[in-house]
């Protein structure tokens, strides 16, 4: 599909509402995604009100698209609904564990990607917010997510008010492995990342951040070890609170 090949992240949106019929139709179609045991282990919280978007914004580090987009969707891994059905049908659920969370998370991300592709194919723009798993606790509290429900992805969606350049992607040869995984030699790493490192905007990042290499932008500034470890502890605590860990 050309919409996939030409896709780009949209952070600026027109002041134009998304009709409920269109949004629900796209969501319903996205729910045709593959799912573990046909259990559909996901729920979606739709946020339209200005008040709720302003409350959500701090959990996403106040990224402006959270409040400027007409709709914010929080996709949640959900074993609550299925477990309650089991209990009401004299079946004992055993889904309060990390494996069950991974199954529900996989279901949820498949639906999320389906929705993003369908939305873009219908003239909408989206932005995927990775902050959801960085900072789940306030999202859980604000959206009143019960036990066995965990937010895993947030998508801002609306009619695009920009057409930014597409970000680069690694070459096919750097990602596809035939039959078995072939580990990367130093020469292969140099080749795979050469284009990314050659881009003027990335060279500029290195210059203005006073680093020696582009990789150091990631390790020393954007995704630091200390931050990753801190957020990992927070994530583990939240998974325990939501019932997915002992």
Task: For this entry, give a set of tags.
single chain; 246 residues; alpha+beta; four-stranded antiparallel beta sheet; 12% strand; globular
Write the layout of secondary structure elements.
Elements lengths: L1 H4 L14 H11 L11 E6 L2 H7 L8 H4 L2 E8 L1 H9 L9 H24 L3 E5 L1 H4 L1 H8 L5 E10 L27 H13 L1 H9 L6 H8 L2 H17 L5
How would you describe this structure to a colleague?
By secondary structure, the protein is α+β, with helices and mostly antiparallel strands. Helices cover 48% and strands 12% of the residues. It contains 12 helices and 4 strands; from the N terminus they run H-H-E-H-H-E-H-H-E-H-H-E-H-H-H-H. The chain has helices spanning 2-5, 20-30, 50-56, 65-68, 80-88, 98-121, 131-134, 136-143, 186-198, 200-208, 215-222, 225-241, and strands at 42-47, 71-78, 125-129, 149-158. Strands 1-2-4-3 form a 4-stranded antiparallel sheet, sandwiched between helices. Helix 2 crosses helix 6.
């Amino acid at each position: 599909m050309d919409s996939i090949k030409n896709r780009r992240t949209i952070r600026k949106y027109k002041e134009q509402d998304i009709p409920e019929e269109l949004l629900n139709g796209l969501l319903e179609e996205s729910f045709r995604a593959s799912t573990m045991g046909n259990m559909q282990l996901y729920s979606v919280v739709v946020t339209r009100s200005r008040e709720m978007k302003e409350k959500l914004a701090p959990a996403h580090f106040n990224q402006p698209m959270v409040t400027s987009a007409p709709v914010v969707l929080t996709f949640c891994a959900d074993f609550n609904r299925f477990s309650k059905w089991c209990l009401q049908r004299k079946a004992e659920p055993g889904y309060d564990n990390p494996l069950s969370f991974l199954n529900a998370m996989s279901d949820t991300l498949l639906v999320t990607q389906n929705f993003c592709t369908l939305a873009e194919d219908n003239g909408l723009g989206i932005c995927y917010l990775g902050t959801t798993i960085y900072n789940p606790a306030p999202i859980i509290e604000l959206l009143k997510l019960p036990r066995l429900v965990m937010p895993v992805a947030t998508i801002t969606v609306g009619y695009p008010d920009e057409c930014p350049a597409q970000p680069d992607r690694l070459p096919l040869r750097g990602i596809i492995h035939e039959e078995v995984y072939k580990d990367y030699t130093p020469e292969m790493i140099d080749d795979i990342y050469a284009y990314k490192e050659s881009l003027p905007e990335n060279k500029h990042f290195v210059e203005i951040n006073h680093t020696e290499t582009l990789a150091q932008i990631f390790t020393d500034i954007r995704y630091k070890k200390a931050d990753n470890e801190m957020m990992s502890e927070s994530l583990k605590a939240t998974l325990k609170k939501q019932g997915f860990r002992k």
